[in-house]
């Protein structure tokens, strides 16, 4: 007869595996179809469970979505804070380098985890309108953290203070998420997705050029 502790651990492990399976499938479905376009029934069928089993493991569709968005945020936050830690303590002169590093790492992160920018892209199209506070809870604090870190560089003139830095940051995010969730056309009109290596090289070069133009203060003339 198996001992009680071993049985409980096995049951917990099996339940954790089932939760992870459901979360991964639901993440892909929400990323592809959006929250409003995905039903709990679809998730359950794709995961090989019935709706009751999904609900008992992870709660309602709303609960499932909130768990997924929190996981997406934690992955985003870890990637951003890892870059900022490399430059800590940040000198004003190094702030533009940190912004470029953030752009590079965010692009790599989105290319490796395409479902995460897709989840946020759906929200920008007013998906899940009844869940209103995710941006304020998750996105705004990260933006505020970055903005606070580069404020001395703005004041010292190492970063151009003419453009609103909020929009500099959003421009970088819009460009990266647009590229990772969409495609570009080559010289003959063929669609190139984010998996195309040359498209990645060209986009990364463009992204850094764009940031240079936005961040570099204008030359003073005598």
From TrEMBL:
Keywords: DNA-binding. InterPro entries: Homeodomain-like_sf (IPR009057), HTH-type_TetR-like_transc_reg (IPR050109), HTH_TetR (IPR001647), Tet_transcr_reg_TetR-rel_C_sf (IPR036271). Residues 39-58 bind DNA. Residues 16-76 form the HTH tetR-type domain. The keyword DNA-binding applies. It comes from the Bacteria. This is HTH tetR-type domain-containing protein.
């Amino acid at each position: 007869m198996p001992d009680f502790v071993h049985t409980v651990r096995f049951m917990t492990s099996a339940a954790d595996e089932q939760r992870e399976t459901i979360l991964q499938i639901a993440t892909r479905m929400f990323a592809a179809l959006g929250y409003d376009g995905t039903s709990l029934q679809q998730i359950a069928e794709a995961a090989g469970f019935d709706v009751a089993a999904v609900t008992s493991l992870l709660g309602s569709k709303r609960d499932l979505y909130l768990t997924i968005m929190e996981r997406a945020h934690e992955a985003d936050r870890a990637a951003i804070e890892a870059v900022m830690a490399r430059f800590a303590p940040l000198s004003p002169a190094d702030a533009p380098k940190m912004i470029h590093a953030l752009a590079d790492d965010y692009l790599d992160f989105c290319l490796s985890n395409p479902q995460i920018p897709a989840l946020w892209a759906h929200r920008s199209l007013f998906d899940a309108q009844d869940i209103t506070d995710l941006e304020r809870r998750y996105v705004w604090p990260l933006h505020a953290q970055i903005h606070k870190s580069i404020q001395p560089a703005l004041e010292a003139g190492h970063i151009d203070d003419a453009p609103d830095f909020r929009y500099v940051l959003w421009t970088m995010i819009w460009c990266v998420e647009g590229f990772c969730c969409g495609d570009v056309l080559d010289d003959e009109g063929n669609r190139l997705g984010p998996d195309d290596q040359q498209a990645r090289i060209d986009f990364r070069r463009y992204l850094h050029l764009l940031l240079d133009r936005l961040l570099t203060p204008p030359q003073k003339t005598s």
